[in-house]
TrEMBL record:
Catalytic activity: a myo-inositol phosphate + H2O = myo-inositol + phosphate
UniProt family annotation: Belongs to the inositol monophosphatase superfamily.
Source domain of life: Bacteria
Keyword Secreted: no
Organism: Sphingomonas sediminicola
Keywords: Hydrolase, Magnesium, Metal-binding
PANTHER family noted in UniProt: INOSITOL MONOPHOSPHATASE, INOSITOL-1-MONOPHOSPHATASE-RELATED
Enzyme Commission identifier(s): 3.1.3.25
PROSITE patterns per the UniProt record, alphabetical: IMP_1, IMP_2
This protein's name: Inositol-1-monophosphatase
Required co-factors: Mg(2+)
C-alpha cells in the first residue's frame, strides 16, 4: 500500500461516501428531478445531494476550513487555514443523459508564503469504475497504488488530445474552431469526453497525451491540474504562462509535446 497524508484519506472517504447514491441515481436517471440554472448548465438533485454529503465529511474533519463549491458557492472559513475546492459531479450533462463518464473532484488550496494560492492535494474519483486518481504536491500522482506518469510520446502525429467544445452560450465557438483547425491536422485524434476533471486525470495517467479547454471554473480543474503536474506534465494558459485560474484557460500535456501544442493554440488565436 502506498502511504499518503491524512488529507487524502479524508478526501477519499468523502468521495466514497457520496458515490453509492450517485451510482443509484445514475441508474434511475430518468426519474431525477432536474432544474435549469442557465444555458446547458443542468443541476440535478443528485449533484446537490452529493455535494451535501461531501461537505459534511470535509467539515467533520476540518471544521474551520473554508470551501469553494460548485453548487454552494464560497463558504468562509479561517483565513489562515487552507480551503477545500469541490465539484461533486463533473460531467453533469453526461450523467443526465445516461453517459457513464463523470467524476467527483476535491482539492485543497493553501496559501504560499507570498500569499498566492496553490493546490497541494487533489482527488478525481470516477464512481462507476471505482478509479481514484490522487496527488500530493511533491509526492507524485497516483491511481490507487500505481504511480502515474504523463505520456512519453514525442511526435504529435502519434498523440490523442482531449478538449471541450463550446455549447449553448459557453465559450467562443469561432475561437475554438480556429484552435481545432490548427491542432487537428497535427495529431492522431481529438476527443471530447465531457468531464474536464477526468480529462486532466487521464492526461496524468497517459491515456491522453494532451488537453485544452477554456471557460472552466476552479472546481473543474484544481485537482486535475495538480495530477498532471505531479505526473510530470505541464499545465499553462494559452499564452504559455501560469495564469490558468485567472484566465480560465488550460493546456495540459506531457513535457514532450506541451510547448508544441501551446504554440499551435497561441498561433491560431493571433
Amino acid at each position: 500500500m502506498v502511504s499518503h497524508s491524512g488529507l487524502i484519506t479524508v478526501m477519499q472517504r468523502a468521495a466514497h461516501k457520496a458515490a453509492p447514491r450517485l451510482r443509484r441515481d445514475f441508474g434511475e436517471v430518468e426519474q431525477l428531478q432536474v432544474s435549469r440554472k442557465g444555458p446547458a448548465d443542468f443541476v440535478s438533485m443528485a449533484d446537490k445531494r452529493a455535494e451535501q454529503t461531501i461537505v459534511e465529511e470535509l467539515r467533520n474533519a476540518r471544521p474551520d476550513w473554508g470551501l469553494l463549491l460548485e453548487e454552494g458557492g464560497e463558504v468562509e472559513g479561517n483565513p489562515s487555514k487552507p480551503r477545500w475546492i469541490v465539484d461533486p459531479l463533473d460531467g453533469t450533462t453526461n450523467f443526465l443523459h445516461g453517459i457513464p463518464h463523470f467524476s467527483i473532484s476535491i482539492a485543497v488550496e493553501e496559501k504560499r508564503p507570498d500569499g498566492r494560492p496553490e493546490i497541494t492535494h487533489g482527488l478525481v474519483y470516477q464512481p462507476l469504475t471505482d478509479e481514484g486518481f490522487w496527488a500530493e504536491k511533491g509526492r507524485g500522482a497516483w491511481l490507487q497504488d500505481r504511480r502515474l506518469r504523463a505520456s512519453s510520446r514525442r511526435d504529435l502525429a502519434d498523440c490523442v488530445v482531449g478538449t471541450g467544445i463550446p455549447h449553448c452560450g459557453r465559450g467562443v465557438p469561432a475561437e475554438w474552431s480556429k484552435i481545432y483547425g490548427a491542432v487537428a491536422p497535427h495529431v492522431s485524434g481529438v476527443r471530447r469526453f465531457g468531464s474536464a476533471a477526468l480529462d486532466l486525470a487521464w492526461v496524468a495517467a497517459g491515456r491522453m497525451d494532451g488537453f485544452w479547454e477554456d471557460d472552466l471554473d476552479r472546481w473543474d480543474t484544481a485537482a486535475g491540474v495538480l495530477l498532471v503536474r505531479e505526473a510530470g506534465g505541464f499545465v499553462s494558459d494559452y499564452r504559455g504562462s501560469d495564469r490558468i485560474f485567472e484566465r480560465r484557460e488550460y493546456i495540459a500535456a506531457s513535457g514532450a509535446i506541451h510547448s508544441r501544442l501551446q504554440k499551435l493554440i497561441a498561433g491560431a488565436l493571433r
